[in-house]
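Most newcomers find our protein records easier to grasp once they have seen one. Read left to right, the backbone structure tokens trace the chain's path through space. Nothing more is needed to start thinking about how sequence determines fold. An example says more than a description, so a record of this kind follows:
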Amino acid sequence: METYDLVILGGGLAGICAAVEAGEQGAYVLLLEKQDTLGGSTVLSSGYMAFAATDMQDAAGIIDSTESLLADMMEVGGGVNDPTLVSTYGRHQHETYSWLVDHGIEFRALEAVSGHSVPRGHIIDPHQAIQSLYRIVKMLPNVTVRFNAPAKRMLKNTEGRIDRVLYEFEGEELRVLASKGVILASGGFAKSEELLQQFAPQLNGALRIGGAGNQGDGLKMAWEHGAWVQDLPYLNGTFGFHPTASGAVKSQGLAFYKGGIIVNQLGKRFVNESISYKLLGKAAFEQPDQITYQVWDQTVMDKSVFDDPLYDLELLRRRRLLYVTDTLEELADCIDVPLEVLEETISRYNHGIQTGEDPDFGRKTLTHNYGKPTPIEKAPFYAFDSTVAMLATYAGIAVNAAGQVVNSYKEPILGLYAAGEITGGFHGAGYMTGSSLGKAVVFGRLAVLAALAELTV
């Protein structure tokens, strides 16, 4: 039986960052990835990372702070997210940003997205990030990566400490000893119909577009050993995907965060469009036939951001996914909603902007606490069929601030650590864009440091 200091299960952002950190600390590491390539759901993400008080923000004249970042996280999470995890993120977020830069991760631009009070969405190319980190891993002689190597079970020693992993590789069933611990970084369960039916039956009908390997394997392995769970009651899909996104092209647009509105098939608004797109997904699924449209005008279209995964509205037009008309009458006809209702909806919305008070849903900003809405009045007018997708589950096993997996009494399960999408407790009832990739790096590295220090409490 082979022996390593650490065995890491999963090669998304959390797993690969853990492998780099452990390798650079001198530990002997085995990373097992069940797919034939690295990336998991990371490479399907929009590539936003939530950091505050960075040099990029300074250069753009954006005033931000760790305190503001954490306040937004708690507010977006409805106050039910674990404050210990959130504060831990705050203590390490700036050094994490610097660590990523030092390891070749390219941050391209800044945007304000869901949950942001200022532009703090630092945009990466997820593929570039994963490949840059993998190049480092390949140069570390003490780190081994095995593809097509699904883990099956974790085993305890006679002292009750998890120290072995049973996995398959090249047609054999193998065991590996992890002398300092096992780190679960195997993602969520967005592609497990069994678990989605168990924990989120309200999302039947949502597109399934998560990473192919996100079947909840790690969750089941952790549950076998008594891992507690958090945030499962808050499972929601992500709003803003085109209905064709279940195919090869995952077209998504968030025009509502640039000033658009969202209407149902009756032509009526049904929500404050500035809230988290997880909560927007919940509201959209409650609409008749679950059919909704984003509607905007040329003023919003002019805010399109080239090559941005969420805001490149012109790309949606080039893909012929938008309805574009010169009048609201034509637009209503295209999306088959009552003209008089759509006109009344937009008139009330515009009047609310003029008076400073949205009479229906209290919208005052573009996204969270950032940006000023503008009237929808400048032709041409646009509409985008929008639906809900299960991209990532953002709920799972409970961990403490060191990344140790804990039981229902908040006691560490010795030898077991976790990071990334598999964990719960951090996001709470909502979701701040960029916090998922951010926490993957923060807690992936912290889990390594805890394991190597052989924490027992």
